[in-house]
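Each record in this resource describes a single protein on a pair of labelled lines. With that in mind, the following record should read easily:

===
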Amino acid sequence: MDQPIEVDDQEPGRTDDEPTDEGMPRTSSEPEHHSGSEESKSVTGSLVEEHFENGRRYCSETYFMPNDEAEQTRLAIAYQAYLPTLDGQLTLGLIPRSAKRILDIGTGTGDWAIAIAERFPKAEIIATDITNTFQPPSAPANVFFELDDAQNEWAYNEPFDFIHMRDLSGAFSNWNAIYAEVFKNLRRGGSLEITDHGLIQFKKETPNSNTGIFNGAIRSAADKSGRPLDLNHLKKPVVDSAGLSVVKTRVFEVPLGIHDLDPQKKKTGKMAMIAALEGLEAVSLRLLTKHLDWKEEDVRKLCGKVQEEVMRPDARAFIHVQFVVARKLM
């Protein structure tokens, strides 16, 4: 990976690599028994409905990203592309070895939750999402998968040592409310790590490019939906306003493609490009057809043109990935 654009003087924390036996994952349909607590989750029918639009499957009438097999594959690739950003570490923020409870919001395929559970076998890992379609067939015994919408009030009786959120830009209409729940559910001294990435860019921008048209269209549609697709929720004043204190921010430039001479960056760039190109239709189909009244074929046609631009040998496309770590100090 390229060096971060913005770096503070703190180093990423190391985590415990002690292995653990694997077992069947717990789900929200099973009795709650986390650490002897009686936490209850609200699972409504709208969270498990299936909606089919434009050849893609969605978990609700509102969330813009699909939950079909193609998206599951893309998420798995995206997870692998993230790892080299932190030199194989799972977090930028420090998780104490004594951590007892870790929460993963928007867990998706559960890859991060499973990996962190293996490194912290004595901790209880709760992984939530608005769909259980991506839930893996097996996971460490200390992982509990739950069906839940983070936009609702969180119903936990015990605070968490660490809360993890990744790639949720465009998911929420009110980030202040999300951060308020984070603050309420972190123990004193606990940390939040939230990560999101920007849209596709090029080293040398071309006026009126199809990629520029695409980016402008999905931003406009997301704004119209009431769930902006941007990185404003990562700004320090927004996070701090909830009572949290931002202690670390880093922005990495991730290449899309194999144009970098460094072998590791070539490998990462290849995975990142696949995830980005597979994500073009995933991110745009519902947004543009539902909120800007585009026709499905026009959306797919534009996605094809963007793909051609990104794959040009001289394109040197990239995205920015931003990590923010905040602590609850009081």
User: Anything to note?
Assistant: The mean pLDDT is 86. The longest helix spans residues 263-291. Residues 24 and 138 are 5 Å apart (CA to CA). The helical segments are 69-82, 111-119, 175-185, 210-225, 236-240, 263-291, 296-311.
